[in-house]
Amino acid sequence: MIGFILTGHGHFSNGLKSALDMIAGPQEAFEIVPFEEAEAGAYGDKLREAVRDMRAKTDGVLVFCDLMGGTPFNQSMMITAEQDNVSVVAGTNLPMLIDVVMARTPESSVEDLVAEAVEVGKEGVCHMELGGAADDDEDE
Predict the structure, then answer these.
(1) Which end of the chain has the smaller Cβ count within 10 Å, N or C?
(2) 79-120 tens-digit pLDDT
(3) What is the CATH number of the domain that holds 99?
(4) Packing angle, helices 40-57 and 71-80, rounded to 10
(5) Measured between alpha carbons, how far is 134 from 79 in angstroms, rounded to an integer?
């Protein structure tokens, strides 16, 4: 099984994990590592330890980050150079996480789940409009 680690600035990972648990239920091999300002100096070591521990009990690790270029992303990328079968996806959103946890099977590979995450993450961003308001104004 591929393990998941969710990280990001502030309460991003806590909130997203809470929403994921509410919708999809608690997940096996899924950990969060928040990047809190008060613990900034220890964050890299904490994330590295979480990835190492997850990697020891899974076939690979997929790290989900809030945004590309931030500290959580940069630290995650450095960790990929130190450990095999660890990948990073930035721009994580709730539709992406829901889909990937539901798609994960014991046979899933990191590469398959990365491709799924990127595709569904893009599809989860959209703009919707209700068209009725403009028509109502014309009738008055």
Answers:
(1) C
(2) 999 999 999 999 999 999 999 999 999 999 999 999 999 999
(3) 3.40.50.510
(4) 40
(5) 52
Burial (0-12, 13-18, 19+ Cβ within 10 Å), 34:
buried
User: 40-52 burial, b if ≥16 CB within 10 A, otherwise e?
Assistant: eeebbebbbebbe
Structural domains of the chain, count: 1
Q: Which helix (H) or strand (E) holds 132?
A: helix 132-139
How far apart, in whole angstroms, are the C-alpha atoms of residue 139 and residue 14? Answer: 48
- Write out the residue range of the structural domain in which residue 118 sits: 2-139
